[in-house]
Amino acid sequence: MGTQQQQGSTSLNMPLMVRYTRNRENGEAFFTTVNVLMMEVMKLAACSFLLIREHKCIFKFLADVKDAIWGDPVETAKVVCFPAVIYTLQNNLYYIALSHLDATTFCILYQLKIFTTALLMRVLLNRRLSSYQWFALCLLVVGAADVEWSSASSEASANSNDLVGLLSVGAMCFTSAIAGVYLEKVLKGSSVSVWMQNIRISLIGLPVSILSMCYYEWSDIQRDGPFRGWDHWVLIMTATNSLGGLLISMVIKYADNILKAYAQSMAIVGAVVGSWLIFSIVPSIFFMLGAIMVMLSIVVYSAFPYVEKPSEEKVQLMAADGREYI
């Protein structure tokens, strides 16, 4: 669903585009809060268009929106308010992180969300992991630590802003895990469509984004205008980041875990190549070693899920039917 936006945001081109558009003087860079607001507007418009086209009647669409929001206010409060605030916060942290970290380092460190999500699912949802998955999580942590050590040791990254980027990515990993586990626990059995869920979240996220924009950057916006620094690259990046989350929801629905794992790995490879071509950042041997460990951990984690063994009674019943448990 659209709440997977942050996963979509780490696709091949997004970190590179954000890094490229943010790599400007402070007085020329776009306002991140305005960008987050416009992302919510685009997502709301796209989902509304799809539902209006499906209903073939704008009044029926408005009635469904009213029922989805006010028909069950308790469910709306549980499902929408908390995730909307979390994802608005994540979108802002996304730009902060990529303002201080190169795209490759961000892509690799952000994969730690797999680790934080797995731990929370084990604690809160009692979701069991296979021994291969625990090994993959350990490999992920070691690889990410190696990448961060290699980045901090390089001259290109030796500045105080690296700490800001690292803390931003860490906050994104934890908030992504919290929101993901929370939604999985709450949304099971929900009959509301993917597009309507996005509309509900956007309607809550819009006022949060507006308040954030007014609190952090209102004086600068009054002086320079809300669309300072916007060009065709910023517009493309905003549309891709906003609407890409909707496309990711469909990919998650129809693609298996192996394909998604390979897609994430290829995104990291693409970020390495793009950073080399665009920003002339040549990764060190230790950096590449850490990146390989992270990519390998993603594939192993997805390829060897936990398989619950049947009880002894079930095995006996299967044997009685002439079947064998493998």
Could you explain the architecture of this structure?
The protein is mostly helical. The protein has one domain (2-308). Helices cover 78% and strands 0% of the residues. The protein is built from 14 helices and no strands. It has helices at 5-9, 14-22, 32-55, 58-70, 73-100, 103-110, 112-124, 131-153, 161-187, 194-224, 232-254, 257-279, 285-303, 312-320. α5 crosses α10 (194-224) and α8 (131-153) runs antiparallel to α13 (285-303). The longest helix has 31 residues, at 194-224. It is globular, with a radius of gyration of 22 Å. Residues 1-12 and 155-160 have low confidence and may be disordered.
Spans where pLDDT lies below 50 across 5 or more residues:
1-12, 155-160
Count the domains: 1
* Beta-strand residue fraction: under 5%
For the termini, the CA-CA separation is: 34 Å
Shape: globular
> N-to-C SSE series?
HHHHHHHHHHHHHH
Biggest sheet character: none
Write the topology of this structure:
Blueprint: H1 5-9, H2 14-22, H3 32-55, H4 58-70, H5 73-100, H6 103-110, H7 112-124, H8 131-153, H9 161-187, H10 194-224, H11 232-254, H12 257-279, H13 285-303, H14 312-320
Helix pairs in contact: 2-6, 2-11, 3-10, 3-11, 5-9, 5-10, 6-12, 7-8, 7-9, 8-13, 12-13
